[in-house]
Write a structure and sequence with these properties.
By secondary structure, this protein is α+β, with helices and mostly antiparallel strands. The protein has helices at 55-60, 64-67, 70-86, 112-120, 132-145, 165-178, and strands at 4-10, 24-26, 40-43, 153-157, 183-187, 193-194, 210-211, 220-225, 228-232. α3 (70-86) packs across α4 (112-120).
Length: 236
Amino acid sequence: HNNKDIMTAEISATGDSLVEVDDALSSSQMLSISMPSADVVEISQNFYWPLYTKPIDWIYQSLPSDTFDEKQRDAMVDRVVEELNSLSFLREISPVWGEEEGKNLTATNTGPNTLRNDLIEEKEDWFNGLSGGQKSKVELVRNIFLANSCPKVLLIDETMAPLDPSSKSLVMAKIKRFCKDSVVLVIYHNDVDDNKFVEEDHFDEDMTQTCVPSNNFFDDNLHLEGGALVRRAVCL
């Protein structure tokens, strides 16, 4: 990932960074983490969704439709509907041509009951009928918000890229609340500006470098270049 700006949302209950990073930190000095680990969760920019499956089964990575009683199944489905609705999953701009292969993104989901039915019915390819933003929201719910707590280290690789500004704000606010005791690393290219910093004297560096807006979410910008992580400021 050379030449990428890696934004770190290192959030604690007091708002202080959990990790202190030197202005220039060689990647060879970074702590090695053996994967897979229950303490580390990664959400990539490429989503996989199996064909001919019930969405609720894939979201939970189990078979709630077959292995739980009706009351338990209903509660699990209700939880997913609630989490998706908290991210405005059903909100779609009225019929419009989407960004993916000119696909018509006319909203197929018209309310919670329709979403609930979609989750429990076997679908040939449920993901194919969703917008890019909806896919991101499903993956965020599946990997983060259905758990009892946020993983200690959360890696988000361009997952927010398909989100519109309103949805992005909702997602960032929810992650900030839910993962307040975790380290969150986000690969992020949106809204990058040149020559714009929070504080001119915050870091002694070339003012022609880019910065990424904090969005009341990011604490620091770690720029990976030439095998080293360089700490940069974030802008308003």
